[in-house]
Amino acid sequence: MSDVSGSWTRTRNLSSSFGEPQSPQKDEQQKLAVPFCGGIRGGLRPGKKITIMGVVNADPDSFDISLTCGCGDVALDMCVRFEDREILRNACVSDSWGKEERSIPYFPFIAEQPFRVEIHCEHPRFRVFVDGHQLFDFYHRVTPVAAIDTIQISGSLTITKLN
């Protein structure tokens, strides 16, 4: 697996604010503000890994992590729902949503606790790990995989690191 550190390009900051110049640490926090939308330089390919580190909010409702082709097709939409303790996955190709997947061996997210999500892009699928434990596989519905060039994150979480 290759490390994709430093391969993010900002496409837009949905929660940007204007004002006084900020320290590098504050600037980094602003760049990772939720909702977040950023580019994946060069798109995805088998062997590439995306790591999202964050903390679940105190009274969480849900959060979403989506891998998209710009503003078009959605290759993976992962919706974490706390009330039902489920993680829904789906893809949208040519404006048509496919069959939703929801089976998981356990629910790994806890209010006010940090987490680490790794999305490994493999030849036939995404393999998703939370805190080092495999949670699910999601087989590619969008091709070519290299067209997947954007990540969007929203909901009841704080992002602490993304690479």
UniProtKB/TrEMBL annotation:
Transmembrane segments: none annotated. Residues 36-163 form the Galectin domain. InterPro entries: ConA-like_dom_sf, Galectin-like, Galectin_CRD. Residues 1-24 have a biased composition (Polar residues). It comes from the Eukaryota. Keywords: Lectin. The keyword Ribonucleoprotein does not apply. The keyword Nucleotide-binding does not apply. It holds the Pfam family Gal-bind_lectin. Residues 1-29 are annotated as: Disordered. Does not bind lactose, and may not bind carbohydrates. PANTHER family: GALECTIN (PTHR11346), GALECTIN-RELATED PROTEIN (PTHR11346:SF98). This is Galectin. The lineage of its organism: Eukaryota, Metazoa, Chordata, Craniata, Vertebrata.
